[in-house]
Write a structure and sequence with these properties.
The protein is an alpha+beta fold. Helices cover about 60% and strands about 10% of the residues.
Length: about 260
């Protein structure tokens, strides 16, 4: 199988395609880890309200501003291309905003859980449409600068991977002397099903959603030593890492945030 190739009208637009894809992956990773944390809290009868608050706060501070900027900047530019294949995107954007509205006002655990799960599915489909049709159309348009459009979006949304982390200690259960968290269900991110091209960006976004003292479990199909090196380079000393399982079918690692450093 050969990789899809997108021809861009400029080198700047070609480079920004990868930047946008990784940004989307980071957004998805952050939403995934907060959703998983809420579902774990609900299943274990833990502090469900705190988990709900963290989930809503995360999507309100990252996903909603992005969707608004997308509607203000990307969608009008797409309409100018006249490409009928991207006609579903405005409705997809509107539906995502509606799902955010419902999730932000939901309080029953069942409503929050189902709403968050639906949001994950819709978000993945939305980004698939963007990557498969919309972004290539903009990159190929000679009268549109995708790099300039993305610059306008970044100026209003910021970088999801560099936003501040709440420094309040989270309710994380007992930490044994070896440093491994227990007495709670940690959110788990299984990257074996994540496309290789966006795998690391997805992990970065998920880790940025982890608050001080809390953690997550990463599942990989091999020992992720290059990834661990990148994480340490990006956020020196921010995470305490313990191997929970070392193959041969899967490697499971626990990350615990011990610093807010980037």
């Amino acid at each position: 199988m050969t990789a899809d190739i997108t021809l861009a009208s400029s080198s700047g637009d070609a480079a920004v395609l990868d930047t946008i894809t990784r940004y989307h992956a980071a957004l998805q990773g952050a939403v995934t880890v907060k959703t998983t944390a809420f579902l774990a809290a609900a299943a274990g009868h833990a502090d469900v309200e705190s988990a709900r608050h963290e989930l809503v706060a995360r999507i309100e501070s990252t996903l909603r501003p992005y969707l608004q900027a997308e509607a203000d900047v990307l969608l009008p530019a797409l309409q100018q291309t006249g490409d009928e294949s991207i006609a579903d995107l405005p409705a997809s954007n509107t539906e995502l905003v509606a799902q955010l509205d419902q999730l932000s006002t939901a309080f029953r655990a069942a409503d929050v859980g189902s709403g968050a799960a639906a949001l994950q599915i819709s978000l993945a489909e939305h980004f698939r449409l963007l990557a498969g049709k919309a972004l290539p159309a903009l990159a190929q348009a000679s009268d549109v600068s995708l790099a300039a459009l993305w610059g306008r979006i970044e100026s209003t949304t910021g970088d999801v991977q560099s936003q501040g982390v709440d420094e309040r200690p989270a309710s994380t259960g007992h930490i044994c002397e070896c440093g491994i968290l227990d007495e709670q269900e940690l959110p788990e991110l299984d990257v074996r099903t994540v496309p290789h091209a966006i795998r690391h960006a997805t992990v970065f976004g998920a880790l940025e959603a982890i608050e001080m003292g809390s953690g997550m479990v990463l599942v990989a199909h091999h020992d992720p030593l290059p990834l661990l090196a990148q994480i340490e380079q990006r956020s020196p000393g921010a995470f305490d890492v313990h191997y929970l399982e070392r193959g041969p079918e899967a490697w499971r690692l626990q990350f615990r945030r011990i610093s807010g450093a980037r």
